[in-house]
Write a structure and sequence with these properties.
By secondary structure, the chain is α/β, with parallel strands linked by helices. Helices cover about 40% and strands about 20% of the residues. The protein has a six-stranded mixed beta sheet with strand order 4-5-6-3-7-8, with helices on both faces. Strands 1-2 form a two-stranded antiparallel sheet.
Length: about 240
């Protein structure tokens, strides 16, 4: 059984059909890319998957094992680095409101557990030295790592990355590709990503779907996608 199975997804905005009959199946451990020119419908697909699955609320989708990052980094920028992780982990806390209000033994044990977990996670992303820093003060690359770490704090099965290489130089993009493979192996994840940097997509994805004007025009392994004339036409135009 597929980890994620989306069938016949169609999305309208007013009279505009943004996505038409989109289908995707993700198996455990896959790294799959979703590409297309601006306005192709990629982010709409991501938003439907992570914000509007059969009427579920966002926190229910998180509890189901799906986490995401965003093209424009969305940290709690005025909160500390460690608090960004702890907030993401909150729904897994074992104590209730009464324990928190009365500061019971169960509350303190739970707080110690999440502190230890957050530091361990920050250490994996080389951010433990910034634990008490305001997250908005971090360099861009560190903020991107923190956003991914925060997503992982929810202990997802499926991690959705929305243009993780946005704003990165070639060296940073190379590090990102290594990180994506490491994330998959270390956390036993399935990863779905949107990315405009074709070098990243071709270098990290095992399978790719291509969208154009809301429709899927091609899908397959990177080499097949690279040589498909419909993909070349969508990206470069006729006669290119």
């Amino acid at each position: 059984m597929a980890l994620l199975d989306v069938q016949h997804l169609t999305q309208f905005f007013g009279g505009l059909r943004a996505v038409s009959d989109f289908n995707i199946q993700l198996e455990q451990g896959e790294i799959v890319g979703l590409i297309g020119t601006n306005g192709a419908g990629k982010t709409t697909v991501f938003n439907v998957i992570t914000q509007n699955i059969v009427g579920r609320k966002t926190y229910q989708i998180t509890q189901a094992g799906i986490a995401r990052t965003f093209q424009n980094i969305r940290l709690f920028s005025k909160s500390s680095v460690i608090d960004n992780i702890k907030i993401a982990y909150h729904f897994r806390m074992s104590y209730g409101n009464t324990d928190a209000f009365l500061h019971t033994r169960k509350y303190w044990q739970g707080e110690q557990l999440v502190d230890d977990y957050a530091i361990d996670l920050l250490r994996l992303f080389h951010l433990e030295g910034h634990a008490e820093d305001v997250s908005g003060s971090l360099p861009y690359g560190a903020q991107r790592r923190l956003e991914i770490a925060r997503a992982l704090a929810t202990k997802p099965k499926l991690l959705i990355l929305d243009e993780p290489a946005a704003g990165m130089n070639p060296a940073e993009a190379d590090e990102l590709m290594e990180m994506i493979h490491w994330l998959r192996d270390k956390f036993d994840l399935t990863i779905l990503l949107i990315e405009h940097q074709m070098r990243v997509v071709m270098g990290v994805c095992e399978r790719i779907k291509v969208m154009d004007f809301g429709e899927t025009i091609c899908e397959g392994v990177p080499e097949y996608i690279r040589n498909d004339p419909r993909v070349c036409e969508a990206y470069l135009g006729k006669g290119a």
